[in-house]
Amino acid sequence: DGFSAKRLFTQGFSYTYDDLIFLPGYIDFAADEVNLTTKLTRNIELSIPCVASPMDTVTESSMAVAMAALGGIGIVHYNNKAEEQASIIRNAKSRRIPLITDPIFISPTDTIDSVDDFYCSPYVFVTESGNSNSKLLGAVGVSEWERLLDKTTVVCEYMSESRITAPSSYTFEQAASALVAKKLDYLPLVSEEDGHVVDLFTTADYERIRNAPELGLPSLGADGEFMVGAAMGTREDDKRRLEHLVKAGANVVVLDSSQGHSIYQLEMIKYMKRTYPEVDVIAGNVVTMNQARALIEAGADGLRVGMGSGSICTTQEVCAVGRGQAIAVYKVSSVAAQSGVPVIADGGIGNSGHIVKGLALGASTVMMGSFLAGSNEAPGRYVSQGGICVKKYRGMGSLEAMTKESAARYLGEKAKIKVAQGVEGSVADKGSVLKYIPYSMQAVKQGFQDLGATSIQSAHNLLRSGALRLETRTAAAQREGGVHDLVSYKK
Ligand code: XMP
After folding, report:
1. How does this protein assemble (predicted)?
2. For position 52, what pLDDT does the model report?
């Protein structure tokens, strides 16, 4: 019944996830017994198969920490100076709790002219020099500032004096009990070395983390800190960036290109393996077996698959090159598996079914952009649009993003005219990834149970042996597979 993957994918069609459906297998285990432990690269294990994409509207320190706390990993984008990227990585690695508000600092003689000076944080901290490198004197809350009649008053006249703090090495339980026991609405977390504020723990963090379903094993490096990845390009000056990333403690580096089969990338992989053999390299992006073979031969420890499948991508329309994501994942994985190189299915994840499909077709992890954008942990602020709360999400090849460093991913070394390969948009507020990633992982476990696969590896074995059967879906079958014939419904 149905087709084996080998047969289905030799018919000349560029299939993507929605074109396909798996036929059910045999269940003799509970969904909770499904093991989603997996490999990101040859040497890095994760307890859930989720990777946050290196995009400037998806992964900075808060996302990286949340993903690592969940057992996945975030790859910090490089649409910034090398020093800035390194500082985001250091910040993420120094955190012990998945917090989301970067502390804002001001000096005692400053005034707060507008609510924008709070940068969405509920408090600003007053320090001697107005930055994070000096003694904490006090704090001003948004509500205190709002009550202030004369906004030209300098902050030292109405700030609340410096108060209870906790060490930044505190676990969530320790920080939470200090917050609750002392009935605080926020707790500055300070460095044990110099007493400087490094983080802000608020009642909102307490609620967000306490209400999250139980998390799996966090992703920790050999240093005991959260694992954090970083992306970079393949230009000569990226070697300097690489040095910063390695010094900042990046656990894995992703060579970020929309078409990875290039002399620039092959040479960069070799350089990295020669210079920093201890850091795993993820190469890509690739969609064909030929591309995959070349990057593996050069020394890649992981491969990132996808070209034009992302929700904000226009590469296939602009350049007429790419591949349907389902066949790309299958073909690349079949080559990579022979060398023990794990594959990341990058882009096109819109629901948990797509995650099941990417993994069952041979990937070991999925990389997500839009699925994580719009969450509390994504960079940027919420704004109201047409009555709903949204956050910005944009392609790294969009004109807006390419005004910074990311142009290298989509342009030649010396291109003079910028051609966009992505769009700028917005996505609805999704709440915290600490809540919906565990929910999605439970759905993925149920999908694996339906397939009769107890783990990602067992799904791969079923796929390769031909025991996993699948078919294409007609347009009518796709319609039938979604919600239909209702006047209205609730999700
Ligand atoms: P999703 O579907 O998760 O896709 O939103 C995220 C992935 O899309 C890729 N990406 C782009 N591709 N133009 C492209 O053609 C772009 O501007 C762009 N920005 C991101 C990238 O692989 C990401 O992980």
Report:
1. Homotetramer.
2. 98
Is the shortest distance between the CB of 396 and ligand 1 below 6 Å?
A: yes
Q: Which tokens hold the place of 52?
A: 């946050």
347 CB near ligand 1 (under 6 Å): yes
What confidence category does residue 162 fall into, taking pLDDT thresholds of 50, 70 and 90? low
Instruction: Please give the Cα distance from 241 to 252 (Å, whole number).
Output: 14
pLDDT confidence band for 467 (50 / 70 / 90): very high
pLDDT at 250: 97
Chain center to CA of 477: 32
Q: What DSSP line would sit under 398-442, residue for residue?
A: STTGGGTTTHHHHS-TT--S----B-EEEEE--B-HHHHHHHHHH
DSSP per residue, 292-359: HHHHHHHT-SEEEE-SS-STTB-HHHHHS----HHHHHHHHHHHHGGGT--EEEES---SHHHHHHHH
Which of 329, 396, 424 gets mutated to test ligand 1 (max ligand atoms within 8 A of its CB)?
396
**Residue 314 contacts by C-beta under 8 Å, 6 or more apart in sequence?**
308, 395, 397, 420, 421, 422, 423
| Helical segments of 95-191, H only | 142-147, 172-181
